From TrEMBL:
Stored InterPro entries: Motility-assoc_lipoprot_GldH
Pfam families for the chain: GldH_lipo
Name of the molecule in the record: Gliding motility lipoprotein GldH
Superkingdom as given in the UniProt entry: Bacteria
Amino acid sequence: MRIKNSAILLLVGILLFSCDKKRVFDEYKSVGSAWNKDSIVTFDLPVLDSTKKYNLFINLRDNNNYPFKNLFLIVAIETPSGFTKVDTLEYEMAKPDGTLLGNGFTDIKESKLYYKEDVKFKGKYKVHIKQAVRESGKIPGVQALEGITDVGFRIEQKD
């Protein structure tokens, strides 16, 4: 009976993931229990169809140890020619009462954060993401950002 239940669960999982037709690239990297301010998460993107447009997302997994309402990120896209475009981004991560935003049934939440839309790629790109959170009234950044466990990058084909 246990094998039958496992097989059914595996089949349901495969069906759910195979329905994600927009996904072109989706990868996570662990940052441990705290994301160090000097730690840069890098993604090597595959070569994509240069005639199509894509939407880009930053995915995060966080837990109840995340102490802030907002999250600040510095995201750099490195082109094949070596040119790098850098963006400083701010995302709301919690409601005013401290409840984390995102999807999930446990204390771990997954947030799909919009980054860019209608992007065209020509060649092989790299994406670099680092946290830039600071406490109110303090200049130095938070050395070890608790609560963020995984950082991901997702590319979806635009319809």
